[in-house]
Amino acid sequence: MLHLHHSWSWLPAMLAVLLSLAPSASSDISASRPNILLLMADDLGIGDIGCYGNNTMRTPNIDRLAEDGVKLTQHISAASLCTPSRAAFLTGRYPVRSGMVSSIGYRVLQWTGASGGLPTNETTFAKILKEKGYATGLIGKWHLGLNCESASDHCHHPLHHGFDHFYGMPFSLMGDCARWELSEKRVNLEQKLNFLFQVLALVALTLVAGKLTHLIPVSWMPVIWSALSAVLLLASSYFVGALIVHADCFLMRNHTITEQPMCFQRTTPLILQEVASFLKRNKHGPFLLFVSFLHVHIPLITMENFLGKSLHGLYGDNVEEMDWMVGRILDTLDVEGLSNSTLIYFTSDHGGSLENQLGNTQYGGWNGIYKGGKGMGGWEGGIRVPGIFRWPGVLPAGRVIGEPTSLMDVFPTVVRLAGGEVPQDRVIDGQDLLPLLLGTAQHSDHEFLMHYCERFLHAARWHQRDRGTMWKVHFVTPVFQPEGAGACYGRKVCPCFGEKVVHHDPPLLFDLSRDPSETHILTPASEPVFYQVMERVQQAVWEHQRTLSPVPLQLDRLGNIWRPWLQPCCGPFPLCWCLREDDPQ
Q1: Are residues 201 and 309 in the same domain?
Q2: What is d(CA 422, CA 413) in angstroms, rounded to the nearest whole number?
Q3: Which of 84, 260, 352, 524 could in theory staple to 530 by disulfide, Cβ–Cβ 3.0 to 4.6 A?
Q4: Contact present, 348 and 383 (Cβ < 8 Å)
């Protein structure tokens, strides 16, 4: 009897929430409005966490969230890279709808000083919750743009998208911030600049030789200009690394740069201090706090007391440090008496990176039994992520849900909990998760989910509820390198188009219900309903595509190149250096 009583102790609170959410009692919804704390890891693999099957990585605090709450086992990101995934998360819409995709291979925003970003006409859940009286904060990574026309217009800034408070990186942590050998753009830029230097140096030498031997009738002016250009390119190749560190690796508080470039050993304590400060300031609520961890993206900045402590090298150390950060945040909630009134959500923006590898050392995550990883638009390893909700006394502890859900579902879920209305003037792809989380709905409202790579549709899944089957159809897949490998080794991420992808005719078909690892391709000979499945999925794709409207692509070349006049700088450009805040207490 004691066990039975404990198991059903959440029922009265759950019924109260259900009654408050009923249409006839919509005016009373404010009575149950929780505080909302959203925790998002960067590049974390679903297989990196204990509660998702890892028995060698220590993640006790994240595991505790799952034990005390609801765990989603088929939780899907809308993109396999951070910029489009985060845009979809905040807006509840596929990133192709907002233009937060590319068509030419620029998968994410490349520079802080670029003009692309989350369009001002997009509505985030933060904007709606702010209108409903919530204090709204974002601490950590943004990576959805900053400026449009000047270095201070901040048109894409978090404060222009519904957040009252921002502290963190407007861009993203990356290997180039620490001049790692695993480089996002520095090495490529150095190689291009060196090549151009060699070309111009050869031109200058040829002109000099021709001038001196009278074989080329030319004045000295072209010789001088080509030589000066060569010298400038050579100098640029030496300084481009420092430019990237100062241009992209800095911290802001609201509209003010506080640390440029970042002092990495201060960053984690500063983030935790900021989270604690926000929670204490707003403990009388309601509040929405989005903690967007810089962990576990390379260069895996880890404090000294966590180095060498895990069984998985520097990457494991970084994961375990992030879990410790989660624990510190949970402790703050307890101390401030906020635990029972706060809905907590934990996830990752996409799967772990398989290509983050040097020699035999892996610096990216593990995606468990799932094929592929970060950057792969269709394979499960790139898009299946952790999804954990905890709301003590409301959500049943220990519940596990295998229904298809999406990061986009957070938008309508938190909007409804806050007493807001989902926008009716645009397509919202997310679905309210609360009935599923509470157990009042048996199935997810997602019958189909589309899986994009840039603006190209690579795959789709169909939840055939009457059969209890989860079909997955791949139209395009990347060519793994070397042949037989499980990733695109030798490059940062797999491509979305071109010679290094395969267009399948007929498409590849998998039954994820029986084959979640996508290892057994179904054919008309092995699957009796093959053609019926293909026909139904293709019909759903056509119906989905008819809802798309043409929009400017924010990540294409014009919006995704560095523009010096858009570069944030805490001094006269290019003297971008400052340290405006004391060490954390």
Answers
A1: no
A2: 9
A3: 524
A4: no
Question: Bridge-partner residues for 75, per DSSP?
Answer: 385, 405
User: Among the residues of 58-174, which ranges form H helices?
Assistant: 60-68, 82-91, 95-98, 125-131
pLDDT by residue (tens digit) across 423-443? 999 999 999 999 999 999 999
Is residue 118 in a domain? yes
State the catalytic residue, choosing from 51, 75, 82, 576.
Answer: 82
Burial of 358 (0-12, 13-18, 19+ CB in 10 A): exposed
Answer yes or no: is 509 within a domain.
no
| Of 583, 582, 580, 585, residue with least CA distance to 261 | 580
**161, 132 contact by CB (below 8 A):** no
Whether residue 363 is contained in a domain is answered as yes
Is 463 known to be catalytic?
Answer: no
The closest of 463, 329, 334 to 406, measured between CA atoms, is 463
Residues 574 and 569: their CA atoms lie apart, in Å, by: 7
User: What string of DSSP letters covers 397-416?
Assistant: TTEEE-S-EEGGGHHHHHHH
82 is catalytic: yes
> How many structural domains are present in the chain?
2
Give residue 187's pLDDT: 83
Cβ within 8 Å of residue 159, ≥6 positions away: 166, 254, 255
Q: Which of 75, 143, 295, 350 is catalytic?
A: 143
Residue with tokens 């139209």: 475
Whole-model pTM: value is 0.92
| Residue 35 clears pLDDT 60, i.e. is over it | yes
**Domain contains 318:** yes
Domain extent, residue 228, equals 185-241
